[in-house]
Amino acid sequence: MLGAGCAIGAAALFGASAPFSKLILNDVGPLMLSALLYLGAAAGLSLLTLVSRRTAASREARLRGLDFVTLTIITLMGVAGTFLMLYGLTRISALAGSLMLNLETPFTMLIAVALLGEYLGRREALAAAAIIVGAAMLDWTPGDFHADPVGAGAIAAACLCWAADNNLTQRLSVRDPAAISRLKSLGAGAVTLIIAMFLGIRIPTVPLIMAALLLGATSYGLSLYLATWGLRLLGAAREAAYFASAPFIGAIISIAIFRTMPTIVDWCAAALMAIGVIALLREDHSHLHIHEELVHDHLHYHDAHHQHPHAGGEGREPHAHPHRHLRLVHSHRHVSDVHHRHSHSDKSSADDDHPNRRAT
Asked: What global pTM score does this model have?
């Protein structure tokens, strides 16, 4: 439930960014606003790090070595996705663009399940599909629908970049989520700001800058932080399904701000998305499974998955240090987080009489 709460919270915060961004978009411009939102996110996450120094969050595993290479790729994927989206939107109608941007979720799920070993049961896949279809329905408005192949391809490529970003972030999410989100936001904001200034886009007024930074700190920064936690606890496929509900939150806030009344299509979309979210929350995936031997470093308690010796000096729980997971066979409710990437082709393959089995 904690993972679902993080993912839904991230979706709510990000969904709120759309209507509030619209209030200042015409005065700032999409590229400059994107830069300021990401820089605001980095500032907000830096403040979060300072505040949480005496909490468990300060004992998270630190980024090291190749983690920074992965983080650089993640940042570049995010920036590339933004530019491909902006380019694509210049060649296709707003309606076509809104609908095509929903490709991010199925692309994320496809990469996670087909390439990275995550698992979605049939009912979970149907629940996720309900949320995706509901999000697409919310984006549907009567109007001109046109899209040339280049524009459509650019939007699809943007969604693919963001899907790769989501899955790479999931692989990195065992490290400090605040540090990952902060560096990711800072990198994306700095690169976007440099390009905006190179293109001669003017710097907005101080009140607009402050408004954009404040919005970025909450709707982007805190959202990224919660989303990274969701990726850690749920895996990329399930987190993406929950996060796809973001347009619903944005639609609710738009009703309050712009006094727009929902249509019958909006109500149907909301109902479909609610059904999908509830179905995911109620899903109980449990079976006998095998944990192969693994060595890694992340924040943990000494639960059934973490039974290992200590050299001393690790500090109180939860704590992070390099540790070894011995091969283990047991059964309990789980999702495809970093500790549960196992085959489902034959759930009975984990023999009940296996000598390393523990029941939980």
From this structure: 0.77
